[in-house]
Amino acid sequence: MNKVYIDGKSLTIEDVVNVARNDYKVELTKESQEKVIKARNIVDKFVDEEKTVYGITTGFGKFSDVVITKEETKTLQRNLIISHSCGVGECFEEEISRTIMLLRINNLAKGNSGIRLETLNNLIKMLNKGVHPLIPQKGSLGASGDLAPLSHMVLVMIGEGEAIYKGEKMSGIDALKKADIEPVELTSKEGLALINGTQVMTAVGALTVYDAVNLLKTADIAASLTMEALNGIVTAFDKKVHEVRSHQGQIDAAKNILNILNNSNMTTTQGEIRVQDAYTLRCTPQIHGASKDAIDYIKKKVEIEINAATDNPLIFPDTEEVISGGNFHGQPMALSFDFLAIALAEIANVSERRLERLVNPALGGLPAFLTKKGGLNSGFMIVQYSAAALVSENKVLAHPASVDSIPSSANQEDHVSMGTIAARKAREIMSNVRKVLAMEMLGAVQGIDLNDNKGLGIGTSIAYELIREKTKTIEEDTIMYKEINKCEDLIVSNIIVDKIEEKIGKLN
């Protein structure tokens, strides 16, 4: 059985993907179990002593000055969950629900939250047995963490809410019964420990970052196919050009494209047909490379966050301190995911401009709209329209969420991050980028056919054959969305990247 061991400090994005998509099971390390128990002992001590500590013996937010008695602690925690379950809109996909649970488990495993080990084990059982809470996408301000969506996760733990189990939607209590899991009765600090954190925004962002790495490789492949369709000049990708600027992403993009195009008979050199290409061809390494560098930065930030303690208050067992701070504030992720949105949007921007060069005879020299019988046939005319619409939509979505804030909890929480909105927008943009790249690739292979294919590069020949296994050269007008969807399916499956890497080595 494939398994990821949880210790609160060494989870990777690759681990996240394996749990989210490949059904890896999770298990707490012995060390993390001991830390959880040690922190819980501090909570129990303070409750027994009736010490005034935020979130343990007090209310929440503006009610932090309201003292809660020992007898009321269970009611307090249940009320917290049911009152905070205010998420709205469509629910997250199951893979994101799994990721949310995983990240919350890892956060709690650090031993700074004060949850009981049996409660944490309940969440682990849900993840391992495939009980996936239905978590609405909207309703989080990103500080105090992702309160509303995480509350929907906890609803199922206490036998409320709704879940998906084995592909079927049902009540939370029915899902638990079918999976042979007992609901939990939360006690002091536990409700707050489960919902006060950044795990929803980070879950969405982590999967998006992982997918973005592969999507940038696909963008290099798409650009390479367009280079061949337009007899692009490869001289501009000479490593000497990029090494004197020294940005690693730019160097990597240029290297990728040269390796993909190696042995091509469809590309040219400087002065052979023309002296230089337009920016969207010539500057591809600079444009793609900047996004690669951005994604590398964001990936590092996400890897910090998935191993961070982000709830409040935090418990430090060695000194028996409980400190109320602000690690739930999503600003580090909000800025990162806004950056991710912009970096991805630019990939669609340049891809659509390359598509325009393919369909515009004044720019690329190919038959107008990539059809031999223009007028009778529209060819790829409206494919470019659709790409342009997606690019324009991305520009709206790329507006930073993190520059906005709105006070909440009677101005006790007077600056919030909007980090979950930033993550969701970045994921929506990525979906649009995939579609634009699919349109470019479909147009590029059509252009290659119209330009009398004289032999493609080592990498592009693989991409071409995979696309042509699913699509045919378009001689007469056809229903285009079906062809676009076939190309997008190839991108989602990552088979083009995988097959090229098998042949020429890992792309950067």
Description:
The modification 2,3-didehydroalanine (Ser) is found at residue 144. Its EC number is 4.3.1.3. The chain has 508 residues and is mostly helical. The protein has a three-stranded antiparallel sheet. Strand 6 (162-165) and strand 7 form a beta hairpin. It is 57% helix and 6% strand. The longest helix is centred in the last third of the chain and has 32 residues, at 419-450. The protein is elongated, with a radius of gyration of 26 Å. The model has no long low-confidence stretch (mean pLDDT 94).
Short description:
It comes from Tepidibacter hydrothermalis. The chain is 57% helix and 6% strand. The protein is mainly α.
Radius of gyration: 26 Å
Low-confidence stretches: none
Question: CATH H-level name of the largest domain... which superfamily?
Answer: Fumarase/aspartase (Central domain)
| Overall number of structural domains | 2
Indicate the multimeric state: single chain
Please identify the structural class as seen in this structure: mainly alpha
Helix segment count? 20
Overall geometry: elongated
Distance between the termini: 31 Å
How does CATH name the architecture of the largest domain? Up-down Bundle
- Listing every helix as H and every strand as E from the N terminus to the C terminus, the arrangement reads EHEHHEHHEEHEEHHHHHHHEEHHHHHHH
- Beta-strand portion reads 5-15%
Count of individual beta strands: 9
Kindly report the average pLDDT value.
94
Largest sheet: 3 strands, antiparallel
CATH classification class of the largest domain: Mainly Alpha
What is CATH's topology name of the largest domain? Fumarase C, Chain A, domain 2
Percentage of residues in helical conformation: 55-70%
Arrangement of strands in the largest sheet: 4-6-7
